[in-house]
Structures are given as structure tokens and as C-alpha cells.
Amino acid sequence: MADTGTAPSRADGGVRSIARAVEVLELFDEHHPTKQLREIVTSTGLPKTTVVRLLATLESLGLITSRSDSTYGPGPSFLRWVMLADSLWEVGEETKKRMQQLVDTSGETVNIYIRQGLNRVSIAQVEGTATVRSVVGVGVPYPLSTGASAKILLGSAPESVSREVAARRKGLSFEELQRQVETIRQAGYAVSHGEREFGASAVAAPICGPDGRVIAAVSVGGPTSRFTADRVERYIDAVTAAAREISGNGLGPVEVFL
Description:
Elements: H1 7-25, E1 35-36, H2 37-44, H3 48-60, E2 64-66, E3 71-74, H4 77-88, H5 93-106, E4 109-116, E5 119-126, E6 141-143, H6 148-154, H7 159-168, H8 174-187, E7 190-193, E8 200-208, E9 214-223, H9 229-249
Antiparallel strand pairs: 1-3, 2-3, 4-5, 4-9, 5-6, 7-8, 8-9
Helix pairs in contact: 1-3, 5-9
């Protein structure tokens, strides 16, 4: 008979170690390419000995590099994975061209979002032309509980996802979220003002696969001050037209993963 008493603890320990390693790696971004050991310890809340052990393991794998002054940064092994991710998660040329046309039409930043678990992630972005514009981090997860694109993506998500999303947002019931999502599904677009960030607005529409399932959302986003009623109407027409065209042409290589 298998030893069911010890196997789960080993698995849990392994998963916990992976989660802690990822937590350390997530501390680094374009604004914080390096971190000192004390910063990593403070940010993670882990014992120093645990952090040192994690960093040593990551460094042996080429995922972390260090200097003599106890400063750490992403290692060279990421270069291979970045190139791989770029090739696998790339939208097609027709989609890129349509995104640029949408920027030319609206002047606002255009993003393609997909759902990843309980988050939405931008996999492609073309920045707007205005000096003051809205820009999100490509590849950075944002909660599905807020934003026009989030409501679009929830339209094809399992009920369990919607329930978890509602539970994580204070003051939002599952029933109310479902009503919002159904209204948006019927309208074919979503508009949000100040949901994800105060002063930021967006208009989004669904990109569908050959089977009619929502696989992504295309959005224009910018300062709420520019999203006046007349402009929002124009943006709705432009975004829904772009979404229909992208759906018809196909999103690109990334579509096989969606």
C-alpha cells in the first residue's frame, strides 16, 4: 500500500518551494532590474536563510545572477525563454496592423487581453499617440474583477471563475457580476471608467475563435477626461469593428493556446 501520509507533505513542500522561487523572481521588473539581498528578504517576508538558499538554487540554474555586494538580478537563462515566449505568444501581422489602425483612429492605447486563471493579461500592445496616455505592462496580470476587458473575458469563463472573482472583490456579488457580464455579452462591448485605476477608462470588445468562443478582448484605453460620451460612441464602433475583423482573420500563432 502506498504511504499516503507522507507523499502529500513532500508534494506540498515542492510546490511551496516553487511558489517561493517565483515570488522572488516576480520582485524584478523593468523598473527594478536589480535588488539587494535585504530588499528581497523584506519583500518576501521569508527568513534570510531561506532567501539565500532560494537565490543560490536559482543562480545555479542561470535564473538569477549576483554581484559581490549582495545585489541580484535576472540571469541569462531568461534570454532563451523570452525568445521562446515571444514566438509562442505572438499575435499575427494582420492583428498588429489592425491594432495600429485602431490607434490611428482613436489616438488611444490598444491592447489584446487574454484570460489566465483569475487574471487578464495583455499579450500585445500599441501605445497611443497622445502625450498623456494609458499604458499597462504586457504580460502583467490584472484582476478579472475590474475593467472593460475583464468583463468581456468573463463572458466565456466557467461559473467557478466568476464566483471566485466576485468573492475576491468587496461589495460585488456573484449575481450582480453575472448580470453585468450577461448585459455586456448581449451588447457586444464593454465600457469602464475608473474601475482598475482612478482616472482611466476603456472600451473593449470580444475576439472570438472559429467555434464562436471568446478567446481574447481588444480594448482602447486612456484618461477618463478624453472618454467623453461622443468619443465613447465612436470608440465602441471602432473597437467592435476591429474585434470582428480580427476574429475573422484569426488572432495569430498564439490562438492555438487559447
